[in-house]
Amino acid sequence: MKPLKLLRTSLTASLALTIAFAAAFVNAQQTASRHLFFHITLSPELRHPVSGRLLLFVSPGHGATAVDVNMMSQASTYIAAKEITSFAPGQTIDIDANETVFPAPLSQAPEGDYQAQAVLDVGHTNN
Predict the structure, then answer these.
(1) CA angle 58-60-64, nearest 5°?
(2) In the CATH scheme, what architecture does the domain 4-121 have?
(3) SS percent in the chain: helix, strand, coil, step 5
């Protein structure tokens, strides 16, 4: 399984996050009983641990340069969240895609291709 590298700029920090899918999620068929986890690794190039709210945006499609909430159809993007303290460079954090997810657990998403982006919101400004 090849990790998907994503980059997003926050107001207070630029963080390179790598997402690896515990289940073959992208370009795979979903089943209602599949429990998904995402493994997110903070870039080892950063020099210090960081803390904040780790957000995972997942939406139908492929090839987008960024994945975020569609304000015209907010329920079309799944958002998983986890509060993180002292996330060290090179460290991996797991996100349970069925826990603390809007609009529903990701295991209930319809079949299809999905894209994901992880954002570490160090200033808690992403609402």
Answers:
(1) 80
(2) Sandwich (2.60)
(3) 5, 45, 50
> Which pLDDT does position 19 carry in this prediction?
54
Task: Give the model's confidence band at 17: pLDDT under 50 very low, under 70 low, under 90 confident, else very high.
Answer: low
Distance set, CA 105 to CA 2, 62, 64, 96, 108 (Å): 24, 20, 22, 9, 6
Residue 61 corresponds to which amino acid? G
Distance CA 106, CA 49 (A): 29
Cα distances (angstroms) measured from residue 17 to each of 8, 27, 43, 72, 89: 8, 21, 6, 27, 10
- Could you report the per-residue pLDDT of 32-88, keeping only the tens digit for each? 457 888 999 999 998 899 999 998 988 888 876 777 666 555 557 898 999 999 999
